[in-house]
Design brief:
ELP3-like_N, 216 residues, elongated
């Protein structure tokens, strides 16, 4: 029996049951999205993935669409070569062969505030702001900020979590370029900066280094 036929039978069986739980409906939704993508491939048609996800999620009364990483994880092994290139999020991120990983240093008061007592309008965050757990130049609601906060600004965890996420989204992570964000990294003590850079490289190599020179 073909994969599409198996999916159709399973969806037909479950759709007759009015007591389907949300996780089950999410599984059905993901299966149907994959089925639609395979059908479109066979017919040589282009598909708007976002519209497809929204339509099928609404069909099964889900308030949110399934995550791309969950769809990718559910793609059968025999269909990965067909679907993964279509599902890869923002392929331009790694089109050059280099994956960009943005990380944030810990929140730190800008020296300008210490010297003048004034905060620049274009720096909304920092320890003195309403967003006190954010870095100086950010509010804490940006994607990179939220990843950093979840990792408690640990550079090792920020790097590993982001690389794992990029891999799940189908990107190559053989070559990495770091962007250190936050706005006050160069104002932090040398010891912290060395610790930060050391852990970025250790997160890539899996090695536990004792100095920046060893890590690099």
């Amino acid at each position: 029996m073909s994969l599409s036929r198996k999916i159709s039978l399973e969806m037909g069986r479950l759709s007759k049951d009015s007591q389907i739980s949300r996780p089950e409906r999410m599984i059905i939704t993901i299966a149907e999205i994959i089925q639609e993508l395979l059908k479109a491939h066979e017919e040589g048609k282009d598909v708007n993935l976002n519209k497809l996800k929204t339509r099928i999620a609404a069909k099964y009364e889900l308030e949110t669409s399934p995550r791309l990483v969950d769809i990718i994880a559910a793609v059968p092994a025999e269909s990965k070569k067909i679907l993964l290139p279509k599902l890869r999020a923002k392929p331009v991120r790694t089109a050059s062969g280099i994956a960009v990983v943005a990380v944030m240093c810990k929140p730190h008061r800008c020296p300008h505030i210490n010297m003048t007592g004034n905060i620049c309008v274009y720096c909304p965050g920092g320890p003195d702001s309403d967003f006190e757990y954010s870095t100086q130049s950010y509010t804490g609601y940006e994607p990179t900020s939220m990843r950093a906060i979840r990792a408690r600004y640990d550079p090792f965890l920020q790097t590993r979590n982001r690389i794992d996420q990029l891999k799940q989204l189908g990107h190559s992570v053989d070559k990495i370029e770091f962007i250190v964000m936050g706005g006050t990294f160069m104002c932090l003590p040398d010891e912290y900066r060395d610790y930060f850079i050391l852990n970025l490289h250790d997160a890539l190599s899996g090695h536990t280094s004792h100095s920046v020179e060893e890590a690099v």
